[in-house]
Amino acid sequence: MKIIFLLNIVILFLTNVLTKKHVISNTLNFINVNPKQFNNSTKRLKATEYKIDNKVIRGPLTPLNEYILIQKDEAGDTTDSGVFIGDTLKKNQYIGKVLSVGAGAINTKNGERIPIDIQVGDVVIFNPNDGNKVKYNDKECLLISNEEVLGKINDSNEINPLNITPLYDRVLIKLINPNVNSDSLIIIPESKNNDKVTDGQVVAIGNGIYDENNQKVPIDLRIDDYIKFSPFSNESCEFTYQNAKYTFVKARYVMAKY
């Protein structure tokens, strides 16, 4: 009896082992594929080439933190929008298109990202002496902090002072008695003359800078206010339009209004 009992146990054990082996074999049959056949059925995707200074890089140039990537306007005397550029700015222009935007600097008070008021595709005004020049995909570009961008052009097909929005704590002003004579919009470098105009009329106002809680601090000025500002506070970018001269000034350098 003991022998028969032991034989039954052995038979039951062998039956279970063979059954599991059959199940595993059926489960793994799907990987029984010829490697050559698998390789032939797949194709590698050809990666898009990106270049910096004519050297191929492994991926797109991506700004970090508060930085943005701008492609400079390639115009000669005029842009496609009819903006006339002075001879001295043919190589160092003040207008460009935003290609990429970082995620924003870290606010050390709360650990959150500080928002950037600039988006991909925006046409912006900037000082070409700021930032870091780079030749990206055969185009002259600039990596620059978003806070160094002076303003946005709302409609690149019609560029005039009323179509420009200053950024952050900047104010766009029309200088009073600048002694200019021009019927077209011409962007010119900052004057080296010590007798700078320090009075102006507010044309457009930025929406303020962010405080430590990432809330906007409004600017205590209104459009059409007359102001007095520090003679060395403008942002090295002046332009004329219909016999009037304009510039950007940071609100912190506005000393009084009237």
From TrEMBL:
A Pfam family cross-referenced in the UniProt record is: Cpn10
What the entry lists under InterPro entries is as follows:
Chaperonin_GroES, Chaperonin_GroES_sf, Chaprnonin_Cpn10_CS, GroES-like_sf
* One cellular component term from this protein's GO annotations in UniProt: mitochondrion
Keyword Chaperone set for record: yes
Record keywords: Chaperone, Signal
Q: Name one GO biological process term.
A: protein folding
Task: Indicate the secretion signal residues.
Answer: 1-19
Q: Which GO terms describe its molecular function?
A: ATP binding; metal ion binding; protein folding chaperone; protein-folding chaperone binding; unfolded protein binding
Which domain of life does this protein belong to? Eukaryota
The record's section on SUPFAM superfamilies has: GroES-like
Family to which the UniProt record says this protein belongs:
Belongs to the GroES chaperonin family.
Q: Which protein is depicted?
A: 20 kDa chaperonin
Name the species this protein comes from: Plasmodium falciparum (isolate 3D7)
